[in-house]
From TrEMBL, chain A:
<dbReference type="InterPro" id="IPR013791">
    <property type="entry name" value="RNA3'-term_phos_cycl_insert"/>
</dbReference>
<protein>
    <submittedName>
        <fullName>18S rRNA biogenesis protein</fullName>
    </submittedName>
</protein>
<dbReference type="GO" id="GO:0004521">
    <property type="term" value="F:RNA endonuclease activity"/>
</dbReference>
<feature type="domain" description="RNA 3'-terminal phosphate cyclase">
    <location>
        <begin position="11"/>
        <end position="356"/>
    </location>
</feature>
<dbReference type="InterPro" id="IPR023797">
    <property type="entry name" value="RNA3'_phos_cyclase_dom"/>
</dbReference>
<keyword id="KW-0539">Nucleus</keyword>
<dbReference type="GO" id="GO:0000479">
    <property type="term" value="P:endonucleolytic cleavage of tricistronic rRNA transcript (SSU-rRNA, 5.8S rRNA, LSU-rRNA)"/>
</dbReference>
<dbReference type="GO" id="GO:0005730">
    <property type="term" value="C:nucleolus"/>
</dbReference>
<dbReference type="InterPro" id="IPR016443">
    <property type="entry name" value="RNA3'_term_phos_cyc_type_2"/>
</dbReference>
Automatic annotation (TrEMBL), chain B:
<feature type="compositionally biased region" description="Gly residues">
    <location>
        <begin position="279"/>
        <end position="294"/>
    </location>
</feature>
<dbReference type="GO" id="GO:0005730">
    <property type="term" value="C:nucleolus"/>
</dbReference>
<feature type="compositionally biased region" description="Acidic residues">
    <location>
        <begin position="25"/>
        <end position="36"/>
    </location>
</feature>
<dbReference type="Pfam" id="PF15375">
    <property type="entry name" value="FSAF1"/>
</dbReference>
<feature type="region of interest" description="Disordered">
    <location>
        <begin position="1"/>
        <end position="89"/>
    </location>
</feature>
<feature type="compositionally biased region" description="Basic and acidic residues">
    <location>
        <begin position="38"/>
        <end position="50"/>
    </location>
</feature>
<protein>
    <recommendedName>
        <fullName>Protein FAF1</fullName>
    </recommendedName>
</protein>
<feature type="compositionally biased region" description="Basic and acidic residues">
    <location>
        <begin position="241"/>
        <end position="251"/>
    </location>
</feature>
<dbReference type="InterPro" id="IPR027973">
    <property type="entry name" value="FSAF1-like"/>
</dbReference>
C-alpha cells in the first residue's frame, strides 16, 4: 500500500460535507485537497473550525500513515489517507505483551459546538473497515452528548437508531456505545464535558449487500429523555407531553428517563490562576439542560428518530420540547422510506463500499432529495463510484408506494484493505 | 331513505340546540360547555346517526349535582328510540389500549435492559428474529427429515466401520469392536489421538514398547534387504519435541509469507531467503554454487546468511 504510486488528489471547494469527504477519502484511499474553506463567508471566522480540526486529529489517531496539511490561513486542507488501523496501534509499546486492544482517548476542545455524534458517525463508518477493533473514548471539555442546534443527533439516537443499521450489513458483534457522562451544550452552545466511549469490535472484509424494499408500519416507539444538571421533573414533563401525542397513535410507547448531574470541567480562566486557588475552584459546571431522543421501529426494522434538546440559552418549557420531538418523529415517519435522513449517509456509504453487487434501498422522496444525500451522491461519483440508479416504487406495481424511491447502489468491492489477503 | 331521514332530523336538532344555547347565555361556563357538547354532538351526528333531542339542564348547579340522574334519563330515552323498528344504533367504543396506564407492565425486564444497555438495542432482536425467519416446516416434513437424517448417519457408519463387523453380529459392533468404532468416530470428528492409546504408563514400560517397535522395524528392514525386497523409505527421525504438524495454522486472511505486525509485513531472514530462491550464493548451505575454487573460501565465511 505504501508502495502504491501517489495518485493525484481530488479537488474540492468549500466547507460543506467535510467529514463525508474525509471519510470517503479514507475508505477509498484517494488523497483529497479542499480549498476555500469559509474563505468568503465571514471575515472573522475563516478556515477550519475547532470541531473540524478535532475530527482530523481523530482520523489521524485511528489511521496509520495519514498526511494532513493545512494552508497558512486554514482555508485549505490536503489529506492523504493512510491505513485504518483502529485502536490497536496506539499502544504499540504493549504490543509485545499481547495486549493490543488500546483505547484512543480523544479530547474535544472547549470551543467545539458540535455534538459527539459529529465525531462518532464518521468513526462508526470507518470502523468496519479497520484492521483492529476501534475503541475510542471521547472526552474533554467540548464533548456534548445531547442533540445540538447544528443538527447533530444525540448519542442515544446514534446508539438506538443508527448503530442497529450496521447489523443489516453483517456488522453486529461487539458494538457498544457507552455514555459515561452526559452533557448538554454549555453556555453559548460551546463545550460540554461529557464522556462517550465507542467500542466497535466487528471488522469485516466486505459489508453484505443490502436489499431493503419494505419499510413496514410503525410497531413501537422508544425513547430516552435526559436531564443534566436540572431536576428529573423536566424529564417527566417532556415524557408526559410526548406520550400525550404519541400514545393514541402507537400504544406501545415507552420512554426512559435518565437524570444526571452536570459535568465539571476545568475553568479556562482560573486554570492559569495563582497557586492559592483550591482545586474545586478551578472547575465549573457546564452542559446544563435536557432533551429527548425518540425512535420509532417498524415491523421490518426501519428506525425513524427524532431529537430535540433544550437550547443553551434556556427559556423553552419541557412541554414545548416534548411536543416538538413528537411532531418531529411524526414528520420523519411521514417522509417514509426504510432509512430516515439522519441515517441515509451511513447506509448509502456502506452500500457503496460493499461487494460488487447491486444493493437496493427504498428512500422517501424528501430524504433522497435533501441536500446532504445529493451532495453525497456527487461526492461518491467524484471518488470513482458508479452512479446511483433511481426509480419510483410505484413502477414496480406496488399500491402503497407513497411516492418513495428505490435507490440502487453498486458496491466498489474494495472493502477492507487491512483485511485483504496479503 | 334512511340517509334522507337522518339529514332532516339533524337540521331540526341543530335549530333546537342553537335556540337552547341562546337561552343560556347568562354564565360563561355553561356557554362553553354547551358549545363543546354541541361540537361533539355535531361530529357524532356527521359520522353516525342524529341524536334525539335532549332536555337542556336549566341550571348549572343542577347539571353538576344531578349528573347521574341525567345519565339515567338519557339512558331511558335511548332505550325508547332503539326499540323503534328502523333505527339500528351502532355502538362504538373509544378507549385507549394502554394496559396498566403508564406502560411499565408492557415492557419485560429483558427488553428494558436491552434498550438501555450500551449495545445497540435491536441488533439483538434482528439477530433473534432472523434465526426464526425461515418458514415453519410442517410436522410431516420435520418427521421425514429426522428419519432421513437418522438413516443417513446409520449408513455412513455402516460403511466406515464395516471392517469391524464379523459375521455373527449384524446390527452393530459390540464389545471391543464397539470401542474401536467409537474411536474411529472420534478420530473422524477431529480427535487428535486415539482413545485406545494409553496415556500414562511407567517410563520403563514405555521405553520397552518403543525399543520393541524399533527392533521389530529394524529386523523387518534387515530381512527385506537380505531377501532383496524393496521397502518404503524410512521416515526421518524428527528432533525431540517437534510435532508432526510443525507449521503453525496461519488462519484465513493472514499473509502467506511473513507476519503482519503493527500494520507492516515483517519478513524474517528465512522468509527472504525463501522468496529469493536458491540463486543466492550458498543460499541453502551445502555444496551449492557453480563457483570455482577461489570462491569456496568466501562461501565458508558468509555461511549461508543473506544480509538485507
Amino acid at each position: 500500500m505504501a508502495d502504491a504510486p501517489p495518485s493525484k488528489p481530488l479537488l474540492f471547494t468549500g466547507a460543506k460535507s467535510l467529514s463525508t469527504r474525509l471519510i470517503l477519502s479514507t475508505l477509498t484511499g484517494r488523497p483529497i485537497r479542499i480549498m476555500k474553506i469559509r474563505s468568503t463567508t465571514s471575515s472573522t471566522a475563516t478556515g477550519l473550525l475547532p470541531h473540524e480540526i478535532s475530527l482530523l486529529r481523530l482520523l489521524d489517531a485511528v489511521t496509520n500513515g495519514s498526511r494532513i496539511e493545512f494552508s497558512m490561513t486554514g482555508t485549505g486542507l490536503s489529506y492523504a489517507p493512510g491505513l485504518i488501523v483502529g485502536s490497536g496501534s496506539t499502544t504499540s509499546t504493549s504490543s509485545s505483551t499481547g495486549n493490543r486492544a488500546g483505547v484512543v482517548r480523544h479530547e474535544v476542545p472547549a470551543e467545539c459546538r458540535r455534538g459527539a455524534s459529529y465525531f462518532l458517525l464518521p468513526l462508526a463508518l470507518l470502523a468496519p473497515f479497520a484492521k483492529t477493533p476501534i475503541n475510542v473514548l471521547l472526552t474533554g471539555p467540548g464533548c456534548i452528548t445531547s442533540a445540538t442546534s447544528h443538527g447533530d443527533v444525540s448519542v442515544d439516537t446514534l446508539r438506538t437508531a443508527i448503530l442497529p443499521l450496521f447489523a443489516r450489513f453483517g456488522v453486529q458483534n461487539n458494538i457498544e456505545l457507552r455514555v459515561l457522562r452526559r452533557s448538554n451544550p454549555g453556555a453559548g452552545g460551546r463545550g460540554g464535558g461529557g464522556e462517550v466511549q465507542l467500542v466497535f469490535g466487528h471488522q469485516v472484509r466486505l459489508p453484505k449487500t443490502l436489499h431493503w424494499m419494505h419499510p413496514g408500519r410503525v410497531k413501537r416507539v422508544r425513547g430516552v429523555a435526559y436531564a443534566t444538571g436540572v431536576g428529573g421533573a423536566m424529564n417527566a414533563r417532556v415524557i408526559e407531553t410526548v406520550r400525550g401525542v404519541l400514545n393514541p397513535l402507537v400504544p406501545d410507547t415507552y420512554i426512559f428517563s435518565d437524570v444526571s448531574s452536570a459535568p465539571f470541567v476545568a475553568a479556562a480562566e482560573n486554570s492559569r490562576g495563582g497557586k492559592g486557588v483550591a482545586p474545586q475552584d478551578k472547575k465549573k459546571k457546564t452542559g446544563i439542560g435536557f432533551g429527548i431522543s425518540l425512535v420509532a421501529e417498524t415491523a421490518s426494522g426501519a428506525l425513524y428518530s427524532a431529537d430535540v434538546a433544550s437550547p443553551p440559552a434556556g427559556g423553552v418549557t419541557p412541554e414545548d420540547i416534548g411536543r416538538q420531538a413528537a411532531f418531529q418523529l411524526l414528520e420523519t415517519i411521514e417522509q417514509g422510506g426504510c432509512v430516515p435522513k439522519v441515517a441515509a449517509e451511513t447506509v448509502l456509504v456502506l452500500m457503496a463500499m460493499g461487494s460488487e453487487d447491486v444493493g437496493r434501498v427504498r428512500l422517501g422522496r424528501d430524504v433522497l432529495g435533501c441536500e446532504e444525500v445529493v451532495g453525497l451522491a456527487r461526492d461518491l461519483r467524484a471518488f470513482g463510484g458508479s452512479g446511483w440508479g433511481v426509480r419510483d416504487v410505484d413502477d414496480d406495481g406496488e399500491e402503497d408506494g407513497r411516492g418513495d424511491v428505490v435507490v440502487s447502489v453498486v458496491g466498489r468491492g474494495v472493502g477492507n484493505v487491512g483485511r485483504k489477503i496479503a | 331513505m334512511a340517509v334522507a331521514l337522518g339529514k332532516r332530523k339533524r337540521e331540526a336538532v341543530r335549530v333546537g340546540r342553537r335556540a337552547l344555547s341562546e337561552e343560556h347565555e347568562g354564565s360563561d361556563e355553561s356557554e362553553s360547555e354547551a358549545d363543546m357538547q354541541e361540537i361533539f354532538r355535531r361530529h357524532f351526528e356527521a359520522r353516525f346517526e342524529p341524536l334525539p333531542e335532549q332536555p337542556k339542564p336549566t341550571e348549572e348547579e343542577e347539571s353538576d349535582e344531578d349528573d347521574d340522574e341525567e345519565m339515567v334519563g338519557k339512558e331511558s330515552e335511548w332505550e325508547g328510540l332503539s326499540s323503534g323498528p328502523e333505527d339500528e344504533i351502532e355502538v362504538v367504543e373509544h378507549a385507549l389500549n394502554i394496559p396498566g396506564g403508564d406502560g411499565e407492565e408492557t415492557l419485560s425486564k429483558k427488553e428494558l435492559r436491552a434498550f438501555m444497555s450500551a449495545k445497540p438495542p435491536s441488533a439483538v432482536s434482528i439477530a433473534a428474529s432472523s434465526t426464526l425467519a425461515p418458514g415453519k416446516p410442517t410436522e410431516d416434513d420435520e418427521a421425514g427429515e429426522k428419519v432421513n437424517l437418522k438413516n443417513d448417519l446409520a449408513l455412513q457408519r455402516l460403511l466406515s466401520e464395516s471392517h469391524l463387523l464379523d459375521s455373527s453380529t449384524s446390527t452393530g459392533p459390540v464389545g471391543k469392536n464397539r470401542h474401536k468404532a467409537t474411536d474411529l468416530r472420534l478420530l473422524s470428528l477431529g480427535s487428535k489421538s486415539s482413545i485406545l492409546t494409553q496415556q500414562k504408563m511407567p517410563m520403563a514400560h514405555r521405553k520397552g514398547i518403543i525399543a520393541k517397535a524399533a527392533t521389530k522395524e529394524e529386523t523387518r528392514r534387515r530381512e527385506a534387504k537380505e531377501a532383496g525386497v524393496v521397502l518404503e523409505k524410512e521416515k526421518k527421525k524428527r528432533r525431540k519435541g517437534v510435532e508432526e504438524n510443525r507449521w503453525r495454522d496461519r488462519g484465513v486472511g493472514g499473509p502467506s509469507v511473513g507476519k503482519f505486525r503493527d500494520g507492516a509485513l515483517v519478513l524474517s531472514r528465512r522468509d527472504v531467503a525463501a522468496i529469493r530462491g536458491p540463486s543466492g550464493r550458498g543460499g541453502r548451505g551445502g555444496k551449492g554454487g557453480r563457483g570455482g575454487g577461489g570462491k569456496g573460501k568466501k562461501r565458508g565465511a558468509s555461511g549461508g546468511t543473506i544480509r538485507i
